[in-house]
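can u do me a favor
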């Protein structure tokens, strides 16, 4: 936990918050906070700042918030992700949230095992936990909205009805063997689609291209989804910083 995140409704009128859940336990056992110590804190979707530990009886920890910095800005990337295997789903969601992506769309695809859509890891509580955990790791108050689409074409038709319809205007399709990502004409914000283990089938690739997506690659290695996600977002983050610097 690199940032204590609290919901707006948890904050009392005197700017204190009472924690008696896994956050308090983590602060005690892992971080080792003591009374009077100050840690980084923020409101979900709101400001950043600090929290001072006022008291702790071993069950409930009281912290006083001082939030003066503006809310975290999301990374201007909308992530489209073919439904991962349940055993890696949580890690993938945590990683995307840690990067601070603007939103996440999980979609069915031809090479997605249909049993994945029935995984208990897709329960609202499980996904909400992974999103919050990732945001805490990434030290961002932005917790990305997440949607699940059981039909690939349902997602594509609703988000990008044509090559020029829908947003954002820049749309990337991660695909091994395509031109390097740094050669793409990038504007921000953008969307990036990452396929399942085994990749998108040709019909899905053609559909993406028809809807304005440009196929790009992050290099020669063919990676598992969790590695491909980190590598893709890392390269895009670097390219965005280069753009911001005028490079």
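np, heres the sequence
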């Amino acid at each position: 936990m690199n940032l204590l995140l609290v919901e707006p409704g948890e904050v009392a009128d005197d700017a204190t918050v009472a924690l008696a859940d896994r956050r308090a336990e983590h602060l005690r056992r892992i971080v080792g906070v003591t009374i009077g110590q100050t840690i980084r804190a923020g409101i979900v979707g709101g400001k950043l700042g600090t929290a001072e530990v006022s008291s702790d009886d071993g069950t409930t920890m009281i912290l006083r918030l001082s939030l003066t910095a503006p809310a975290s800005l999301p990374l201007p990337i909308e992530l489209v992700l073919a439904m991962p295997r349940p055993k890696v789903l949580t890690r993938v969601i945590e990683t995307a949230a840690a990067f601070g992506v603007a939103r996440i769309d999980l979609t069915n695809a031809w090479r997605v095992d249909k049993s994945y859509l029935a995984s208990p890891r897709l329960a609202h509580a499980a996904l909400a936990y992974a999103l919050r955990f990732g945001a805490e790791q990434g030290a961002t108050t932005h917790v990305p909205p997440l949607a699940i689409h059981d039909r690939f074409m349902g997602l594509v038709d609703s988000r990008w009805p044509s090559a020029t319809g829908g947003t954002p205007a820049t749309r990337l399709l991660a695909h091994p063997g395509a031109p390097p990502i740094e050669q793409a004409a990038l504007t921000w914000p953008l969307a990036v689609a990452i396929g399942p283990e085994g990749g998108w089938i040709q019909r899905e690739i053609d559909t993406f291209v028809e809807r304005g997506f440009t196929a790009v690659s992050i290099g020669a290695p063919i990676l598992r989804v969790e590695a491909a996600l980190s590598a893709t977002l890392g390269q895009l983050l670097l390219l965005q910083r280069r753009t911001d610097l005028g490079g």
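Residues 4-69 form a domain with the Ribosomal Protein L25; Chain P fold (CATH 2.40.240.20). hope that helps!!
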